[in-house]
TrEMBL record:
Organism of this sequence: marine sediment metagenome
Membrane-spanning segments: none
Origin organism lineage: unclassified sequences, metagenomes, ecological metagenomes
InterPro entries: P-loop_NTPase, Thymidine_kinase
Family in the record: Belongs to the thymidine kinase family.
Keyword field contains Oxidoreductase: no
Protein name: thymidine kinase
GO MF, one example: ATP binding
EC number(s) recorded for this UniProt protein: 2.7.1.21
Protein keywords: ATP-binding, Cytoplasm, DNA synthesis, Kinase, Nucleotide-binding, Transferase
PANTHER family assigned to the protein according to its UniProt record, in alphabetical order: THYMIDINE KINASE (PTHR11441), THYMIDINE KINASE, CYTOSOLIC (PTHR11441:SF0)
């Protein structure tokens, strides 16, 4: 459960909140909820997202359930430090797509008294820690892990399984490309993919042998 930070007027430092989880887990939805609460409180809020993320809109941060808030797309983490220098609260979506400098940027802003709220995938489609997310989670005061529902078992899901054969680390997509899976379902799906690859390699070897013998 997320607990609102108690504010000590003598403490001139901000803090970092990280919202992490798999695809379709509600990360962006929770980010938007917190940012809108800050806007209602008349705080100066700015939202940033990586320029590469244009799935729903070029400028809006949009959740899977169509909840949205206006944002500023930036090509690199360094831009956030410059553009968000006078803000009370800064939101950052899809943090896993930013360069490693995002960690320093978030900490520098927090040290200046800014509340920084970051949302992103904690693992890539291979089940490995994704980009700068581990470092952000380690340095944050608050970390919220959100979960999707596994499409195969109905259990809580924390893995993002890629259904296509594309092996690129960064591939934007929705339900046609990804599905949230529980640990057990993900393990079985990855095992099935490995067996399929072994069958393909075996067929290639048999074909080479056949051509060589022929």
């Amino acid at each position: 459960m997320f607990l609102e930070n108690t504010v000590n007027p003598k403490e001139q430092f901000g803090w970092i909140e990280v919202i992490a989880g798999s695809m379709f887990s509600g990360k962006t939805e929770e980010l938007i909820r917190r940012l809108k609460r800050a806007q209602f409180a008349k705080l100066k809020v700015e939202i940033f997202k990586p320029m590469v993320d244009t799935r729903y809109d070029d400028e809006m941060v949009v959740s899977h359930d169509a909840n949205e808030i206006r944002s500023t797309p930036v090509p690199a983490a360094a831009n956030i430090r410059i553009l968000g220098d006078t803000c009370d609260v800064i939101g950052i979506d899809e943090a896993q797509f930013f360069d490693d400098e995002i960690v320093t940027v978030c900490n520098d802003l927090a040290n200046k008294g800014v509340r920084v709220i970051v949302a992103g995938l904690d693992m890539d489609f291979k089940g490995k820690p994704f980009g700068p997310m581990p470092a952000l989670m380690a340095t944050a005061e608050y970390v919220t892990k959100v979960h999707a529902i596994c499409t195969r078992t109905g259990n809580l899901a924390n893995y993002s399984f890629r259904k296509s054969n594309n092996d690129k680390l960064v591939m934007l997509g929705e339900v046609n490309e990804y599905e949230p899976l529980s640990r057990g379902a993900y393990y079985k799906a990855m095992l099935k993919e490995k067996v399929k690859m072994m069958d393909v390699e075996s067929e290639k070897i048999d074909a080479i042998k056949k051509n060589t013998n022929g």
